[in-house]
Amino acid sequence: MDGMFGRRAAMSGLAGILAAASLPRSAGAQPRGTVTASLLGNLPNIHPWHVGNVETGAANLLAYSNLLKVGPDGTLVPDLAVALPQITDDGLNYTFELRRDVRFHNGDRLTADDVLYSYEQYLATGRRRGNLRRFISNVTKDGDHVVKVTLRDPWVGWMRLMGYEAAIVRRGTDVANEGATGENLYRGSRTAGCGPFIPKSFQADVGVEFEAFPDYFGGAPATQTIKLVRIPDAATQLANLRTGTVDIISNCPPKDFAPVRQEPGFGGAVRPSAGIFYMPMNVAKAPFDNVHLRRAVACAVDRDYICEEIYSGLVTASALPASPNEFWYEEDLAKQFAYDPDRAKFHLRAAGMPRGFAFEAIVPVPSAYVEAREAAVVMQANLAEVGIRMNIRQTDFVSMYRSAQNGDWQAFPHPSMQSSVEDYLIWNNYHKDGNQARWMGYRNPAYDTAVMESFRYLDEARKKPALRKVSEILVEDCPALWIGRLNAYHLWRADISGFGPRYSYFMDLTSARKG
Amino acid sequence: MANFLLGRAATLALVLFGASVLIFLVVRALPGDPAIAMMTSNATPEEIQAMREAIGLHLPLWQQYFTWVGGAVTGDLGRSFMYSTGVAGLIAERFPVTLHVSLVALAIAMAIAIPAGVLSARYKGGPIDHLFRIVAMIGISMPVFWQGLLSILLFAVILGWLPPGGYQPLSAGIGLSTAHIILPAVALGTAYAATITRMLRSSMLDVLGREHIAVARAHGVPERTIIWTDAFRNALIPTLTAAGFSFGYLLAGAVLTEVIFNLPGMGRLLYESILSRDYPLVQGLVLLNVTLFVLINFGMDALYAILDPRIRR
């Protein structure tokens, strides 16, 4: 993997040369009516309920719809539902009215039975069903076009998960088997979804092609064919964009984004996303069972340098889970973890370790995380200034999660894509029932109460007091070092319109068009 | 000859059996859990356990091994955890890509190495020899990914003559297919050409220094005949060994080259399968690689026997 480090550095250098040297060319230009986008991560299947990364999420958005979807800015908007649901005052009952003009790709009309079938099957077989199962008590219908969802505990955030993971399929769809009934959700079914595009061909890890669904309830798509192709290296993606082999790229090395975006012939945009770059600490185990040592780490790291120099401004520095541009960001709380080596030394003295301590940080090695490794090196240098020795252990995600599940870890700096930080991460990582909280080791009943209170409301003004409490407790307990919030960014050729980055980070190509 | 080949075949069968046991155990010794890889970090321990049972990891090791080997001898390599499809089908999709690139790369390597190695030996110590040795040294030293990036920069981005990557099968048209494959094949081929050139040069020098060559020269046999008929044929055995192993390595897949040129070949598939702890896929791919190496070895042994009858005895 050391070789990969050097390779990416070399690629960045080459990309810089490219930025200065050339205009876009058209060696492999696609015909009109086709938009080709490249994906960095693996595309093992396109099963709508096995969304494992943003790549499968992009395919899911093209072929499937749900009651609601998450808009580009992160707000919930109606999709198969006529409007946002009616929610009872106790926050437990949601009533959705379905559109009456929705057809599946095989021509069948959508009814409440399809929604019931989908939820029943999703909760039984979906890969990441655990979170929804924790909250959803039952799903019932009232006539053909009204669906009622009852929760066990209030949690408005479930609708964000629904929008990513639990797509509605036609009732009777074989969701588990491969080809036994002629349907194959893993490799793309032409009859199961009701999204704007129909899967046409799929080759695992290589690409997937969709064709327009003319009877889509939102109106026929502007583009006849959408191709998602996997190009597993960010610098190579950029070369493909320059030659016109692809029209849109999901990622490029952060240092190349701004220069290429400004070149004639290219476009690009950045948007705050739900992703976060942070370092959870194992609060159940020494040395991080001592809150002062956690705070010392939080005050010793120069977030601005990491975000500006390593991520070229594509990560927004924040000492809290919330980003400075979000409604629940609390400036006064963030100041407590501002970069301040003297304050870090104060906490070391308070912990009885004025000369510092050592810990091990597990850092992911896949090439898409080059910047995370560079950021870890900066953190290592920052921490060394106050006497804290951070030993870096590089490993892949599977080994890392294995260590986490076994409690065999101390800190884990990494970027993480989430469906929603305020509704998802703060629950999943720190609430006693959150799956990740099991291995994080963090427990605080007052925190659990504050989180559940914030989950009662969709309205920001009503959520804010509870989220203030959540942030106060997190700052007090400091179970993680929050470095910054990831921004979603993409580059495209200038003749592409109707496309932009999204809060969710998933590429939404449903409205993309060329020319 | 038949006895010689039968003996070799029996040895190879034993090697394959041993390799299958080793592959099975080594794959399971990798740190990490495939169920966690499939479920991500958000899964509960109960969900992870359910996944382990669904993919058969709860069974005793010996049972897992015999299920796998039993299937493998009938061509069924199991079902990929990550891709949710048959391993044999996945390999069947990827192998033609790797085979295509490997054959073209090997052809390029041999086309460069044979004249370079022979001429280098023929004019030992002269300017041609020095030139080829320097070029060979550069070929061995330059990382394939670097050469690949430079070629993408020049031929795809700046000149616009060739696509920057991707794969098109021969069925898409020989021109289109060749345009896609030429850059990765050259990148790989030149790297192996350097190794084979040095091997051939060394073998040629060894042969050219033997007595029978001196006798042939004393009898006035033309130098061209001595080089190409007497020396080259004798120098081929070690060269074929190098070429055979190079071909084996090429068929195993070149991960970096496949990533840089976006080729959906075996190397990339193996890399992904290891990252996701996709046991059936890793096992299937490694077993195939071992089998290919074994078969290439077998082919090399047969060729030696044809080239040098003393080996059969």
From TrEMBL, chain A:
Protein name: ABC transporter substrate-binding protein
Family label: Belongs to the bacterial solute-binding protein 5 family.
Entry-linked CDD domains: PBP2_NikA_DppA_OppA_like (cd00995)
Keyword Cell wall biogenesis/degradation tagged: no
Tagged with keyword Translocase: no
Keywords for the protein's UniProt record, in alphabetical order: Signal, Transport
Pfam families: SBP_bac_5
Signal peptide, first to last residue: none
Residue span(s) of domain Solute-binding protein family: 75-432
Location of this chain's protein in the cell: Periplasm
PANTHER family assigned to the protein according to its UniProt record, in alphabetical order: OLIGOPEPTIDE-BINDING PROTEIN APPA (PTHR30290:SF9), PERIPLASMIC BINDING COMPONENT OF ABC TRANSPORTER (PTHR30290)
From TrEMBL, chain B:
Compartments, record wording: Cell membrane
PROSITE patterns for the chain: ABC_TM1 (PS50928)
Pfam families: BPD_transp_1, BPD_transp_1_N
InterPro entries linked: BPD_transp_1_N, MetI-like
Coiled-coil segments on the chain, per record: none
Alphabetic keyword roster: Cell membrane, Membrane, Transmembrane, Transmembrane helix, Transport
Regions that span the bilayer: 99-119, 131-162, 174-194, 235-261, 281-307
Keyword Membrane part of the UniProt annotation: yes
Residue ranges annotated for the ABC transmembrane type-1 domain, each copy included: 95-304
Annotated membrane topology: Multi-pass membrane protein
Family: Belongs to the binding-protein-dependent transport system permease family.
Annotated protein name in UniProt: ABC transporter permease
Organism: Falsiroseomonas oleicola
